[in-house]
C-alpha cells in the first residue's frame, strides 16, 4: 500500500511539472488563434454574383494578354506567356484553378496586395508587382472588371488538371520563394532541384529576408501550426512579409503532407513499430513481476 | 603461482585463474541490501539502464553525425532521421533518454534527501552522486549543441556568455571556452569532443566511484534503521530468510529492480514513439542562425529551476547589478546540493516523516523547485518576473534555514 502511495505522489509531481513546462508554458508563449478559414470570408466577393464564362476568360488571357504578359500557362497543350523575375518568379497559372480558392483568386485578381494581406509592405512608393485588374484604366473596379474576374477564374478552373501530386502542389504554391532541399537532398554537393526557383539575390530585396527552407517545418512547427499559418500567415506572425496564398483546403493538406513526406519520412515506420515495441515490453514486464514475486515470496 | 590444470574454457578453470566465484560472491550474491525498501531504491539501476541506452544509441548516432557547422544539422535531421535504417529510433531514444535520465536523477536525489541517506558515513555516496549530477548536466548541455539547431546555438550563446558576467569578462574566459568571439565551428567541435569522449569517460569513472562508496556504509532503508549487516547476512545464509533484515544484491534486489525497470521502459518507449517534443524541442528543428534570435530562449526542462534563479533578481539592489546577483545565485545553485550533508545538523539518520520541521522544509523545496522550473520557461515579464523573484528568495531562504531547522528537530526529539 505504501508503495502505491509513494508512486501516486511521484506521478502527481511529475505530471504537475510536465503540465507546467509543456502545455501551460506553450499556451503562454503561443497564444491561441482562430481556426483556419478556407472560405476566405474576409475577402471582398468581387464577382458580385456574376457567373464566369470560360470562353470569355480565355479571350481575355490569350487574345488580350491580360495575364500572359507576365505569367506562363498551358492552354490546349501549348505553353504560352512568360515567367518573369519580378523580385519573385511569377507563377505559372496552369494549376491555379485547382489549388487556389476561387473566391480568393477573384479577390486577388482585383487587388493582389489586399487579398494577400501584404498592404502593410506597400509603403514608401512600393507597390505590388501585379497590377489590379482594371479593363478601362479608370482606377475603379467596375461591373465589367467584376465580370472579367469571374471569366478569368472560370477559365483557369476549366484548364486546371483534375488532380496533382503533393509535390506538384508544393512546387506551384511554395517553391517560388521557399526551398525544401530534403525533397531532393544531394550528398555530392550538386544543385538540388528543390531549391527555391527565385534566386536569393532577387528575393531578399523583395521580401526583406530570404524565406526559410521548409524541409523541417513539419517538425519545427508541426501540422497544427502549419494549418493556421499557411491559411493566414499574419495570424501567427503579425506583419510578416509572407503573403497569404489562398490555397484550398485540399491543396493545403497536400502541401502539409508533402512537408511530412520529406521532413518526417520515418513517421509511418515509427507508428508501425510502436505497438510491437510496447507489446514486447508489456510481456517483459509481466515476466519480470512474476519472477520478482517468486523470489520475494520466500522472504516475507 | 600454483600450477593450474583446469581448462581455461570451464567454470573451474576461470575460477582458478580469475577467482570468478569469489568475485561473483563479493559483487552479487553476498553484497547485502536492506530488505525494508520500496521501489524508489530501484532508481539507481533504472539510471544504469538509461545510461546504457544513452551509450548504445549514442554509438550508433556517432557513426553518421558530422561535427561541422555546415554539416551537423543535415547529418542529424536528414541522414540520421531519414536515410539511415532506424536512425530515427536511435535519435529519439537518445534525445528522450537524455531528458528522462534527469527525471530519474532528481527522483534518486530527493529519495536520498527524504530518507537522510547522505550523512553520518554516507557523505561520499552523496558527494559522488552530486558529481555525477554535475557531469551529467555538462553532458546534457554539450549534447544539446550538436544538432546545431536554433536552440542549440542560442542556448550555447546564452550559457557560455555567463562566463562573461561580472569581472569574469576581464579574464577572456568566454572567448577561451568558445574558441572565438562568438559560438562558432570551433565551439561545436570542442563540445562534440566533450560530449562523446571526455565527459562520458569522467561519468563512467564517477559511476564506479559512486558504486564503491555504497559498499562500506551500505544502502539506507525505509525507516533508516541501523542494521548489523554481518549478523543479518549470517541469518540469511543460514536459511532464516524471513527473519533476516537483509537481502543479497543478486538475485533478490535485482529481481525487484528489473520489475521496476520493466515498467519504466514502457513509460520511456511510450515517450520515444509518441511524446518526444518535450525532449526534442521543435524550435531546434530550425537550423542555427546567428542573425535571428528565437522569440523565446529557454534551456531543457531539467535546467529550468537553476536558470530561473539566474533571472530571479531582475533589478539592481544592494549596490549590485541584477545580472551579477543572478549569476552568484545561479553559481550557488549549481553546487549547494553538494554540501547538503554539512548543512544538516541533525545527528541522527531519520526519514523526513520522523523529522517534522525538515519534512515541511522538504516539500516546500519540492514546490519551490517546481515553481522555479515553470517560471524558468515562461517569458520573464510582468507578474512572471515577480514570481521568479520570490521563488528565488524562497530558494535561498530554505538553504539558510536548513541548519537551524535540522537542529531544532533534533532538539525537540532530545537528541541534542
- Overall residue-averaged pLDDT value of chain A: 94
In terms of per-residue confidence, which ranges of chain B show pLDDT below 50 for 5 or more consecutive residues? Answer: none
The chain-level structural class of chain A is: mainly alpha
Strands ordered across the widest β-sheet of chain A? 1-2
The overall strand count of chain A is: 2
The CATH class of the largest domain in chain A: Mainly Alpha
Biggest pleated sheet of chain A:
2 strands, antiparallel
Strand content of chain A: under 5%
Spell out the key features of this protein:
heterodimer; A: 300 residues; mainly alpha; Cytochrome Bc1 Complex, Chain D, domain 2; two-stranded antiparallel ribbon; 12 helices; 2 strands; elongated; B: 416 residues; globular
In short:
Chain A is mainly α and 300 residues long. Chain A contains 12 helices and 2 strands; from the N terminus they run H-H-E-E-H-H-H-H-H-H-H-H-H-H.
Structure write-up:
The complex is a heterodimer of chains A (300) and B (416). Chain A has 300 residues and is an all-alpha fold. Chain A is built from 12 helices and 2 strands. Chain A has 2 domains: 1-32; 33-263, Orthogonal Bundle (Cytochrome Bc1 Complex, Chain D, domain 2), CATH 1.10.760.10. In chain A, 49% of the residues lie in helices and 3% in strands. Chain A is elongated and about 100 Å long. With 416 residues, chain B is mostly helical. Chain B has a domain at 303-416. In chain B, 64% of the residues lie in helices and 1% in strands. Chain B is built from 16 helices and 2 strands. The radius of gyration of chain B is 24 Å and the shape is globular. The chains are: A mainly alpha (300), B mainly alpha (416).
